[in-house]
Structures are given as structure tokens and as C-alpha cells.
Design goal:
It is built from nine helices and eight strands. The chain is an alpha/beta fold. Helix 1 runs parallel beside helix 2 and helix 4 runs parallel beside helix 5. The chain is globular and about 65 Å long.
């Protein structure tokens, strides 16, 4: 992108809200929509513009971004957005979805005049995302990923190309799987130490 982008951002939950607020502090016009008015207000206070619905967020945007809680909601929202997508718009989804959903979503975007879909899953926490201190695991057409560089640079502190929308989405699931498995093992170790009489603070 050779100019500050207009970004339509839909979904201001814990991670999405943090990312939207971070983007609003950069050289972008960020139009936001969420069903929670308090989440919208927090984004507006960070510099974003509120709109009345998802379609308004997507209209005339250079990049349309979603951060939504389930694959079913992701697909439903994008089905509504497709008629609003202008020529050469980049669709960018941050949601935690499965690879099959990502492939269906990519196919759906291809029926519109939009340039295509890029998936970018994020590591770490919303607190880190608020400061742009998260890794981005990106997948999609190389040309679109390159065009998104200013947006990704504002959002993340490192970008890792997973090669495809399937790669980006499965990597997040793998990361979550490893993290939760480690947590279970640590909890088991803690419980065993307590049963052995070791002081909890120790």
C-alpha cells in the first residue's frame, strides 16, 4: 500500500479489540463495528471511527478485517460482507478457525471483486496485542501479504509466513494444543509436589 489504508474492522472482543485499538494509533483510518457498544467506545477512544453495521465497515475499505469467536460466525459474517467488497480489497481474518473453514472462506472471497483472503493468527495475549508485541502467523497469496506489510508492521513485532490460509490457521491450533498440553503437565507436577508435602510457595 502506498498510502495510509482505510481498514474496516469487525469484531472487537478481547484480541480483536486490542488489535483494532493498536491499528487506530497508526497511519490508518479504522472503521469499527461490534454488537457491544462498550467495545466500540473503547476503540473510538483510541482513534477509531464507529459505524452502524458490518457492511458500513467494509464499504470502500482497502482492507476488511474480522476477529470473531467461532468458525460458524466467521463464515456467516463474510457471507454478508461479500456484496460490499470492492475491487482489489484485501480480506484479512484474524480469527481462530480450522483449515477447512479457511479454505471455504477463501473460495467465498474469490466470488467477489476482492483481491483475495489472507489469514493472520496471532500469538501471546490481548495485552501484548495492545502494544503490538505479538507474532503474526500469516498465510495467503504472497502479493497480498506483501501489500499488507504496513498493517502487519503496526499489528505485530514479527511476521511468520505459513504459506497458505490453511497453514496460518492450523499453526494457531497447533500452538494452542501445545500450550494447553504444557499447562496440564505443569498442573499435574504442581499437584504431585503438593501431595509430597512440598510447600506451595517453594
Amino acid at each position: 500500500m502506498t498510502k495510509p489504508a482505510t481498514i474496516g474492522f469487525i469484531g472487537l472482543g478481547a484480541m480483536g479489540g486490542a488489535v483494532a485499538r493498536r491499528l487506530a494509533q497508526g497511519p490508518f483510518t479504522v472503521r469499527v463495528y461490534d454488537r457491544d457498544p462498550l467495545a466500540v467506545q473503547r476503540a473510538v477512544e483510541a482513534g477509531a471511527e464507529a459505524v452502524v453495521n458490518a457492511a458500513s465497515a467494509a464499504s470502500d475499505a482497502d482492507v476488511v478485517m474480522t476477529s470473531l469467536p467461532t468458525p460458524e460466525i466467521v463464515e456467516a459474517v463474510w457471507a454478508e460482507l461479500v456484496p460490499q467488497l470492492g475491487e482489489d480489497v484485501i480480506a484479512l481474518d484474524l480469527s481462530t478457525i480450522d483449515p477447512a473453514c479457511a479454505r471455504r472462506l477463501s473460495g467465498l472471497i474469490e466470488t467477489s471483486p476482492a483481491a483475495g483472503l489472507v489469514c493472520c493468527t496471532l500469538g501471546r495475549t490481548p495485552q501484548h496485542a495492545e502494544r503490538g508485541e505479538v507474532p503474526g502467523f500469516v498465510g495467503g497469496p504472497a502479493g497480498l501479504v506483501a501489500r499488507l506489510a504496513p498493517v502487519l508492521d503496526q499489528m505485530t513485532d514479527s511476521v511468520h509466513d505459513m504459506g497458505s490460509v490453511e497453514g496460518a490457521t492450523i499453526f494457531k491450533l497447533i500452538s494452542n494444543h501445545i500450550g494447553m498440553t504444557n499447562l496440564v503437565v505443569l498442573a499435574e507436577g504442581y499437584a504431585l509436589a503438593c501431595r509430597a508435602g512440598i510447600d506451595a510457595d517453594t
